[in-house]
Design goal:
- The structure is a single chain.
- The chain is mainly alpha-helical.
- The chain is built from 4 helices and 2 strands.
- Strands 1-2 form a two-stranded antiparallel ribbon.
- The chain is globular and about 35 Å long.
- 14% of the residues are buried.
- About 11% of the residues have low confidence.
Length: 83
Amino acid sequence: MPSDKYLRYGLPIEPADPDAEFLTVQETAFVLNCSVDTVRRRIKELGIKPKAGRRKMLSRRNRLDINGTEDRPRGRRVRAEAA
């Protein structure tokens, strides 16, 4: 059975300072209002190299890049009505 720490790893966490220079992947997910998996996927898609260290830390510039990739529609699609 997975540990509690393992389960929390995939959940967004509210940062102490949302405008800090560097945030973890979990804190970035909270700030961008998306899942941790979405942040990780966008890091991979954009080829972002997080700050070196034990935990992945993303800079403000990285967060702006990730947030700017909102090219996929979210939510339910609305069908155009035939005129």
